[in-house]
Structure prediction request, 124 residues.
Amino acid sequence: EVQLQASGGGLVQPGGSLRLSCAASGSGFTFEHLSIAWFRQAPGKEREAVSCSRGSTAKYYGNSVQGRFTITRDNVEKTVYLQMNNLQIEDTGLYFCAAVYHYCSDSEYNFAFWGRGTLVTVSS
Prediction:
């Protein structure tokens, strides 16, 4: 019902910035009712909650990215963005966006819809 497409990943140096996009499409869904989250996973590590957006004001961030990442929502474009500043090597990973018709959660198991990941590599 809901298809998600993550994009915007790339190769950056430590201290650099990237903006990821998660575009929602399909039929029979209301974008405004979706909580949309970002998760990331590095090789050999568990999947980690990065950020989540619910409605127009509710925003959540993982401890490791607070102060550096900002999640925003565009209801016209049906897209959620993740602005990532001051990127560090430990931010490297495959970033996924996910959605659910409920409140934000830091558990991947609560999200029903997933996009294919976009790769972020932070290296000097």
